[in-house]
Fold:
Amino acid sequence: MTDFDYIIIGGGTSGCVLANRLSVNPDNQVLLIEAGAKDDYFWIDIPVGYLFTINNPITDWCYKTQPDAGLNGRAISYARGKVLGGCSSINAMIYMRGQASDYDHWEKLGNRGWGWKDVLPVFRRSENYQHGESEYHGINGEMHVEERRVNWEILDAWREAAEEIGIPKIDEFNRGDNFGNAYFQMNQHRGRRWSATKAFLKPAINRKNLKVMTRTQVTRIIISNNRAIGVELVSNHNSRKILRGRREIIIAAGTVGSPQLLELSGIGETDLLKNAGVQPVHHLPGVGENLQDHLQIRSIYKVKNTRTLNRQANSLLGLASMAIEYALLRRGPLTMPPSQLGAFAKSDKHQSSANIEWHVQPLSLDKFGDPLHKFDAITPAVCNLRPSSRGHIHIVSSQVKRHPAITLNYLSTDSDRAVAIAGMKYTRKIMNADALKKFKPEEIEPGINCIEDTELAHAAGDLGTTIFHPVGTCKMGNDKMAVVDDRLRVHGIDHLRVVDASIMPTITSGNTNAPTVMIAEKGAEFILEDAVS
Structure:
């Protein structure tokens, strides 16, 4: 087939959902195009394999950000999945919807049908929840949501410490108000990663009306008379081809890839496109703007009188025991996501709801990709859930293989710096609680001599790094900087939609993969409804 009803660009989380839902009707001819490879790399399925998939060019686009003043001039690695399943094939597997107020805010911005009452049934529909059906959870969906399969004494004690200072223990985070502390629930099934590929694409892969192309990059969307009519693509062997989309072209390339493709296709801010060598087709100044991300600040504490992953991973016997436990029981440290334990709270009493989140790890290292420290340690990393800083992502060339410039502007507002300082102080309160006294925590980062607010603000720039939640670069809305409307149609171009995390007008209060599945579910609904209207 050279003509398709629907062409989906991007085989990540959103693309896998769309491919499944749009191909249910055998009359729909559907094409899914993924620039990366199949998700058959050994370490993808093993949960702890994120250590070997992030910063690995086999599975990660290996983006680098621009040097950031908020990070004291540092540039950082910016991982995005480069295989089928996208980031769901390399991420932390944490299932987190955010807060009801996140979605009610989207609706108040004028985005009809995106309030909590509208999206909760969509979350439930996709879910296969370990503890059974309820008002908040479903059991008939494709996304397995399960509990951890390893325990650490130090994390149990951290929960007690958090409760001691006013962050109560709760059962879970996905009922609309995530204030409290709990163990994260994960997209795993019996100790293995449960990616969007496994959940949505593989059950549909043998449908005769669905074609999947990997190692194939779309170089531009073809626009004629303000209508998307097809795509130009290049395969891994540099052969070029043009395919026609009879009904719709759907961009699902993610927060980095979607604005990049729009700009390469001549859709964006006119002067920026000209400077990059691209002929403008449609002036849409919001493309690539409104970038938001959760900046995590990683405090590190050495601990005693307990065992952490540091000690186990630095021992041949420890490594062997982990491998045997996983092979025989699908349990133990090899089932771990980067963080097992979480907590949500207000950084100050003026916040309307919890605005900071901790990801707590029974391990420590200097930076991601480095070896674990040889001493036992814990890393309680705190992030600002609703940053006011905004960045942008834009092409610098007309060449599709040239990475766009990613400018984050972390900590560029007074409020974000204030939340960072408050979060670090809050972490210290927890670590000083009686429940942790037995473990004699010793602050390594930022260090006990870092006391004044100016010193803590500088330390935030040294310690801060992405938690891999970029959103917003093709935001939904009707203002002059919006890229798509509330049915995810690109403003000014017919038969073209963006359906992924880039459409979020504001970032959700937590990890972003589950909301991306929800966005794709709603996008598929819109597409199918509009096909018969």
Summary: The CA atoms of residues 76 and 332 lie 31 Å apart. The longest strand covers residues 240-251.
